[in-house]
Design brief:
The protein has 466 residues and is of the alpha+beta class. It is built from ten helices and 15 strands. The strands form three sheets. Strands 1, 2, 3, 4, 5 and 6 form a six-stranded antiparallel sheet that branches. Strands 7, 8, 9, 10, 11 and 12 form a six-stranded antiparallel sheet that branches. It has a three-stranded mixed sheet with strand order 13-15-14, with no helix packed on it. Helix 7 packs parallel to helix 8 and helix 8 packs antiparallel against helix 9.
Length: 466
């Protein structure tokens, strides 16, 4: 699984756990203990979603950018490695063709031409290609016939001679030539006519370092990265610092990984000075006939250079995340207010109703929960107001206890049998008095009496029949 997938999965799991805790808190009404609990729960939900989206997308974007930058370096290294490998292969193929053609041309001359004539032929090759440091012609027994110069600094490579006497071309592993102070290759080819027997050997010493330096010397990766070529033995063949030529860096993790994978990759590891660097490597074909391990093209880059772009991206992602979270909180507050304010107004309205204030209505309207509740409360206020009016009207003619029972529905309209005590009382000369008074000024009073027994007593100051 890739680094992006692992990190994103971990972030999602963490937020999944947080979501489960939040849902549990909602079900248990943890936020209800606060006066603004609804606001807190809504803010937590919106801010949590914003942070989740920002963190997951930010982590994914950051790691994707890092992978893209790494991939860009790897692709660049693969391109350079392919060019270097193709150029080295082409160069050695050209050397082999030159030696092969030269061997074919001098095959009839072996044993006939003078050493001076053969030397001139060798010097002509050297003049044509300055990468040839020294050239030799040996007979079928491996004995020297002639060389391009009498003072040859490097001895004969007997392995190269043996391969050529066996009829096979040969290319050695690269090695440092102290007399020439450069990295060299020994190359040999058999001398024979057509498919006839081997009559001799031509060997050459090739300056491979200058050829490689010409290829990779000016290559740059980022600001500090430079190209280095390492041979199959782990020796540096090409390096901007000549003092490091022939240094063995086979212990470098990048070199070991290139040998193991035979491909391209990158790794952060310590260099020879113990400083952590970003190494990008590319395995290349080893031109040696007997070589087993590949050549390696690598570069070491200050990890801070790669991180500079990523740090800038990280700062931008953090800033964008903060803006998103603040915007989410602002939107959440507006949403909370749009829900909280009507609910608070309905709360205050219901409190006024509870205290007996039936003179007002709430102005909240709509088809949502708040609007429906407001309509219901308004209807309830109207009903209570109507009930009080009816009670007031009833109270003018009948006792409050009776009107309450009527409003509560406790009165049986079919009649009830009750055991009651009735007191009839009359006022002396009431008839004469009442004849002189208007109906409104006639004193009539009623009262209920509550005797100690369960029987109710009804009395009136006027003549009445129960």
């Amino acid at each position: 699984m890739s680094e992006i997938a692992v990190t994103t999965t971990i972030a999602v799991l963490i937020w999944a756990i947080g979501l489960i805790v939040f849902m549990y808190a909602l079900r248990k009404r943890w936020f209800a203990r606060f006066e603004r609990g609804f606001f807190f729960s809504l803010m937590a939900a919106i801010a949590g979603i914003a942070i989740l989206a920002t963190s997951v997308i930010g982590i994914w974007g950051y790691l994707a950018a890092k992978r893209s930058i790494d991939q860009e370096l790897i692709v660049a290294m693969a391109d350079v490695g392919g060019i270097v490998e193709a150029q080295v292969t082409s160069e050695l193929r050209g050397v082999g063709l030159q030696l092969g053609r030269f061997a074919a041309s001098v095959a009839p001359m072996i044993g006939k031409a003078t050493p001076a004539d053969l030397r001139e032929r060798l010097r002509a090759i050297q003049d044509f290609d300055p990468h040839f440091l020294q050239l030799r012609i040996l007979d079928g027994d491996g004995k020297l016939i002639v060389a391009n110069d009498d003072d040859l600094k490097e001895p004969i490579n007997r392995v190269a001679v043996a391969y050529a006497l066996d009829g096979k071309a040969f290319t050695s592993e690269a090695q440092m030539s102290k007399p020439y102070n450069t990295e060299v290759l020994f190359v040999s080819a058999p001398i024979r006519e057509s498919n006839g027997p081997v009559k001799g050997v031509v060997t050459a010493l090739i300056d491979i370092q200058n050829a490689l330096t010409d290829l990779v010397g000016k290559i740059k990766f980022n600001a500090s990265g430079y190209a280095v070529v390492v041979d199959g033995d782990g020796q540096i063949l090409a390096h901007p610092d000549r003092a490091r030529l022939d240094e063995n860096i086979s212990s470098y993790p990048a070199v070991q990984l290139a040998r193991q994978t035979r491909g391209t990759g990158h790794v952060i590891a310590a260099n020879s000075r113990g400083v952590d660097k970003l190494f990008v490597y590319q395995a290349m074909a080893n031109p040696s006939t007997t070589g087993k391990d590949p050549w390696v093209l690598l570069t070491e880059i200050n990890s801070g250079e790669e991180m500079a772009t990523l740090n800038q991206l990280r700062r931008e992602l953090i800033f964008g995340g903060i803006v998103l979270i603040l915007a989410s909180l602002l939107v959440g507050q507006q949403v909370s207010d749009s829900i909280r304010k009507p609910l608070y107004e309905l709360r205050d309205f219901s409190r006024r109703i509870g205290s007996g204030d039936l003179t007002s209505h709430t102005a909240i309207t709509g088809k949502d929960v708040a609007g429906t509740l407001a309509k219901t409360l308004n209807e309830m206020v109207d009903g209570l107001r109507e009930r009080d009016r009816v009670k007031e009207v009833f109270g003018r003619y009948i006792a409050t206890q009776v009107s309450d029972k009527i409003l509560k529905g406790d009165v049986n309209l079919g009649g009830e049998a009750k055991v009651v005590s009735i007191l009839f009382s009359d006022i002396r000369n009431f008839t004469g008095i009442s004849e002189k008074m208007t109906p409104h000024s006639t004193p009539i009073s009623r009262r209920w009496s509550k005797p100690s027994s369960s029987r109710a007593a009804f009395s009136t100051s006027s003549s009445a029949t129960a």
